[in-house]
Fold this protein.
Amino acid sequence: MSSPRRHRPAVILFVVIAAVVCLLMGWWQWDRFESSSGTGQNLGYALQWPLFAAACVWGYRRFIQLEAEAAEEEAVLAAEQSDVEGGAPHPDGDAPDATPQQMPTPRAEFGARRRRSGPLTEIPADFLPGRPSPSAPEPAAAGRADPTRDDYNRMLADLAASDSHQEQS
């Protein structure tokens, strides 16, 4: 079941312009490399820009492939939904034994097809380091006086008192 491809002239034009600009930038960097002030950095950029152009084209092609897969997935889902609702008879002539909740979903089938490395597994609990827990201050540190902090707090209290005195006047 293949869905018709949608052509988007604006997106195609954007990809073509982006690829051409990347190729022109590569040519410009190559000219800079060949000049008397050219460096290895210019050579690196001259080789990178064509890769950027290829990435533009590849990205567009991948976008089209993913869009086609999504459309196919939706079509299969709609077809199965109409089958479940009674739109088509069961191949055996009987009502299907499986309820819609028991039937495999097309998304699961498509996801399994995309996964090449096998089934997903859960990450073990001890794989990542644990989160730090907030610890209470040490009792010795809590009882110890800090003269600098005490002076600062006294200064803040004096400022607050003078501000409230000025506001009342």
In short: Residues 9-87+104-114 form one domain. The helical segments are 9-34, 40-84, 106-114, 139-143, 147-168. The mean pLDDT is 79.
